[in-house]
Specification:
Layout: H1 10-16, E1 27-30, H2 35-45, H3 52-61, H4 64-67, H5 70-74, H6 80-101, E2 111-120, H7 121-128, E3 134-138, E4 149-150, E5 153-154, H8 160-163, H9 168-196, H10 205-220, E6 229-237, H11 238-249, H12 254-270, H13 272-275, H14 283-303, E7 316-322, H15 326-335, H16 343-351, H17 355-363, E8 384-392, H18 393-399, E9 406-409, H19 422-427, H20 430-448, E10 464-472, H21 473-483, H22 490-506, H23 527-537
Antiparallel strand pairs: 1-2, 2-6, 3-6, 4-5, 7-8, 8-10, 9-10
Helix pairs in contact: 2-3, 9-10, 9-20, 10-23, 11-12, 15-16, 21-22
């Protein structure tokens, strides 16, 4: 894995060494830090251009009184090596427990905070797809500009196979062109937005500037290639990290294999017993890798039998599967805890209720909710739906993070068409935007003939991707009410609204569970959230 772009003085490295497992690699873990500070640090990380170690120095270690870490610094081990040695000694105890009980769930009782810096968006999506037991936080494309250069180069992943192929120049030049276009459009689109949506007198300059910036970056993020470098913070238990490492080690992409090796090296320093079976030469991993390789190989052969005619697809939501008894199952499950009847008896009872009585029963789980954070009873989990979704890769990037969803995506491609924000059309900047995306498609088409997986790195985020969601009604309620809020990106707000509408159309009885889905459209939707944030900073609310 590459070293970090950030450099530290010897004194800073000595200080950081008490808190991070590596001061030079782009992947490292945290230790010796209270959980609340780790959480605050990761939260700040997602909206900053700085790396995690620089943030740790700037906002915590060099601001000890405000951050509350003074006593922490006064009670450190004499050296970072002393701390790591203590962890190694504890490994013997954990190994005895793991070997003696052999229960994978023991791996859920310990965890780690891992920072992964300068990884591609593609890699970030793979890491976030390991859902259960992990909590990822990724650098935002709507609060942070991605036009910066380091040593004169834009920050995108130089994929190893592509960089040794005949398409090296094509790949590098295309990514540079996309970043150039992104950078050039920022000031011009900002001027257009400020003219179209002038600041109102009652809105603070800070809130207005932040809202306009988010609107501008939302419009042009589609130009960023999937190779764009991002930062991630991941908190996970041992079981999560073992599963993640198996997956990374077994990937066909060299970047993911490199990340897997580097992540294992850092995690082995602080939770060695929990990740030992994910060591690349361990029998458990070798067995997993063999299984994955055999399965993939046969599945690809089966997939070749499916005819393909990619002529462009329509973005949106299609409800492809649901249970005709969903309403009755939810109603029966609502009754279940307060009776002594079997589920089958209650299901039969609910099927015999007239519509008015059935509606009254369902209302008991809906009418008392006062906001979207009031989670409905688990009875709603008995209604399961499958959606086929088509949206730009940027919207997928946002929606894919919902962990309690069964999902799978198809390979990134430039064959499905792309999304053009309305503001780019109105501002007269669409021509440059379209030209950049068209050039990216030519590069993708050329590379994909021989390297379809590696070619994904050059695909801009504006291009449509197809994936499916299988999830229950309770999770649909959470996603649609959360992702339809005014502050959200236009693309995923539409997806959320369409998901709710699809369920309501198929099962009108479930409409009562979507009372906090926002079905409106907004010009500068982020403005209200920025005003509230500004008020909080000033102690107004």
């Amino acid at each position: 894995m590459t070293s970090s772009f950030e450099e530290f003085t010897p004194e800073q490295e000595a200080l950081l060494g008490h808190f991070v497992t590596n001061t030079r690699s782009s992947i490292f873990a945290l230790y010796n830090i209270p959980e609340v500070i780790k959480g605050a640090l990761f939260s700040r990380y997602s909206r900053s251009t700085l790396g995690l170690r620089s943030l740790l120095l700037k906002e915590f270690l060099l601001n000890q009184e405000e951050a509350g870490v003074k006593s922490l610094l006064e009670n450190l081990p004499t050296s970072s090596q002393e701390q790591l040695l203590a962890i190694k000694k504890a490994q013997n105890f954990y190994d005895r427990i793991l070997d003696g009980y052999g229960d994978d769930s023991i791996g859920e009782l310990g965890g780690a905070h891992l920072a992964l810096e300068n990884i591609s968006i593609i890699a970030a999506k793979v890491i976030e797809d390991c859902r259960i037991g992990g909590s990822p936080l990724e650098k935002s494309t709507r609060y942070v500009y991605f036009d910066q250069k380091v040593n004169g180069e834009y920050l995108f992943h130089k994929e190893a196979v592509l960089m040794t192929s005949a398409w090296k120049s094509l790949y590098v030049n295309t990514c540079n062109m996309l970043f150039d276009t992104y950078s050039k459009l920022i000031p011009r689109l900002t001027t257009f937005m400020m003219e179209k949506y002038p600041k109102q007198a009652e809105v603070s300059k800070g809130a207005y500037t932040a809202a306009v910036r988010a609107k501008v970056l939302d419009c042009i993020r589609g130009l960023l290639p999937a190779s764009t470098l991002t930062n991630m913070g991941v908190f996970g238990n041992g079981r999560f990290f073992e599963s993640l490492l198996h997956k990374l080690h077994s990937s066909n992409l060299s970047e993911l294999c490199d990340i897997g090796r580097a992540a294992y090296d850092e995690l082995e320093k602080i939770i060695p017993s929990f990740v030992r079976r994910a060591e690349i030469s361990h029998k458990t991993h070798l067995d997993f890798s063999s299984f994955q390789e055999a399965m993939r190989s046969e599945m690809k052969e089966e997939a070749k039998l499916v005819s393909s005619s990619l002529t462009g697809i329509t973005p949106g939501v299609t409800l492809v599967a649901s249970d005709p008894d969903a309403v009755f199952k939810v109603a029966a499950a609502l009754l279940y805890p307060d009776t002594h009847e079997s589920f089958s008896t209650l299901l039969a009872y609910c099927k015999n209720l007239n519509p008015e009585a059935l509606g009254k029963l369902l209302d008991t789980a809906a009418v008392h909710r006062q906001n979207r954070r009031h989670r409905s009873p688990r009875a709603l989990e008995n209604a399961v739906f499958t959606f086929d979704l088509v949206a730009d890769y940027g919207a997928y990037r946002d929606l894919q993070r919902h962990r309690l969803v069964t999902q799978e995506k198809q390979l990134l491609t430039c064959s499905n068409g792309y999304y053009t924000p309305q503001e780019l059309q109105e501002s007269g900047l669409e021509t440059e935007y379209a030209a950049a995306l068209s050039a990216a498609k030519e590069a993708y088409d050329t590379i994909a003939e021989q390297l379809p997986e590696e070619a994904q790195y050059v695909v801009p985020m504006a291009y449509y991707i197809r994936w499916y969601f299988t999830l229950n009604l309770r999770e649909i309620q959470w996603i649609t009410e959360l992702r339809s809020q005014p502050a959200g990106h236009t693309c995923y707000r539409v997806i959320a609204q369409q998901m709710a509408q699809a369920v309501e159309t198929a099962f009108p009885e479930f409409s009562r569970f979507f009372k906090f889905v926002d079905r409106e459209s907004y010009d500068v939707g982020r403005l209200g959230a920025e005003v509230k944030l500004e008020q909080k900073r000033q102690g107004v609310v």
